[in-house]
Design a protein that fits this description.
By secondary structure, the protein is of the alpha/beta class. It has one domain: TIM Barrel. The chain is built from 11 helices and 12 strands. Helix 9 packs parallel to helix 10. The longest helix is centred in the N-terminal third of the chain and has 22 residues. The N terminus and C terminus are likely disordered. The structure holds zinc ion. Zinc ion (ZN) binds next to strand 6. Zinc ion binds next to strand 6.
Length: 342
């Protein structure tokens, strides 16, 4: 049981005793103060970290590297279980389309609405990759039930079908943009990106033109990674520090160049949700598929889904086992990690 629950039940027990005494005395003041009991502050539980918990998940669109907290004494292998959901398109696939890949990559607007409503109603807090890194590197607390929403490729369908839903539910998301494709048919325009960024949406790199980085020369990789952050930062005037490997393809040279180019972390398409600063260039994600029911979505979110079905060309996807951190690894985790997704 978490410290928070322990304290809450302690509090309720003393309220019950006090209420009983008041009842016996015939007082009308027996009801507990609902306002304080109903809205507990997020707590850090048994965390060894000394930083103060934040009351609310705060997205600071004006954040610059200089705003980051100084490094705390955080264990190098500190880990966090945070589902990073991977989306591509949100929209309808044209009726009669036989394009199986496109169907798999497209979540319908209705399903997306249900999924986002579920997150908001179930107490999940959307955070950014920077928030996750700030926790792992500097001990800056995460809110209870954190989740990271990511969208690859920058399709224009997300402007029409995902952005309004995210705004309505108070959620933020990370969009990985292929910078040379911006403004092309089917992709977001810079005007759309800037409009979304002004509402707190986060834009990061998915390279310049989505070539297979694992089959590229070091020079080509540099061209892809440098050109995309330069373009995004020039347009958005905010730091670009995260990368999504096109089709999940990468190798050690790709990681080396990403580090050289100032990327702080990168996401893959390998199934999983436990992250640490040590594997920051290989963070795992949970793919949300076009055919997923709400029940499947909830299972994925709670990490009780036994991995995606085998899919050609996706490293780590086929037969990926349910991720289970070794015993003891999470002893220093915040209280929110005692959730059902552990
Ligand atoms: Zn992609």
């Amino acid at each position: 049981m978490s410290k928070h629950h322990f304290r809450l039940s302690q509090g309720l027990a003393s309220l019950a005793v006090a209420g009983l005494a008041l009842l016996l005395a015939g007082s009308p003041m027996a009801s507990p103060p609902q306002s304080t009991a109903a809205k507990p502050e997020p707590e850090m539980g048994d965390s060894i970290l000394t930083v103060e918990p934040t009351a609310e998940p705060v997205y600071r669109p004006d954040r610059r590297p200089g705003d980051l907290l100084p490094r705390k004494e955080v264990p190098a292998n500190l880990s966090a279980v945070v589902p990073i959901l991977m989306y591509h398109r949100v929209g309808h696939v044209p009726a009669g389309s036989a394009d199986a890949i496109r169907k798999d990559l497209s979540v319908s607007p209705e399903a997306f609405e249900l999924q986002m409503a579920y997150l908001a109603d179930s107490g999940f807090h959307s955070v950014t990759l920077q928030d996750l890194l700030d926790y792992l590197e500097r001990g800056r607390p995460l809110p209870p039930k954190p989740v990271i929403l990511t969208f690859d490729d920058g399709y224009d369908t997300i402007y029409h079908h995902a952005w309004p839903v995210l705004k309505r539910h108070g959620l933020v998301a990370v969009f990985f943009v292929i910078t040379d494709f911006v403004g092309k048919d089917g992709y977001l325009s810079w005007e759309q990106i800037q409009g979304m960024a002004q509402t707190g949406m986060d834009f990061q790199s998915h390279t310049r033109n989505h070539r297979d980085l694992a089959k590229s020369s070091r020079e080509q990789i540099t061209w892809q990674l440098k050109g995309s952050w330069e373009m995004l930062e020039a347009r958005l005037k905010r730091p670009v520090r995260f990368l999504s490997y096109p089709a999940g393809k990468y190798n050690q040279t790709v990681i080396d160049v990403a580090r050289e180019q100032g990327y702080q972390a990168a996401v893959t398409i390998i199934y999983g949700a436990t992250h640490s600063a040590l594997d920051r260039y290989e963070w795992r994600r949970l793919r949300i598929r076009g055919g997923d029911s709400l029940a499947t979505f909830v299972k994925k979110l709670n990490l009780v889904y036994p991995g995606p079905p085998a899919s050609a060309g996706e490293p780590g996807a086929a037969g990926a086992p349910l991720e289970k951190p070794p015993p003891g690894r999470n002893l220093r985790s915040p209280a929110w990690r005692a959730g059902p997704w552990e």
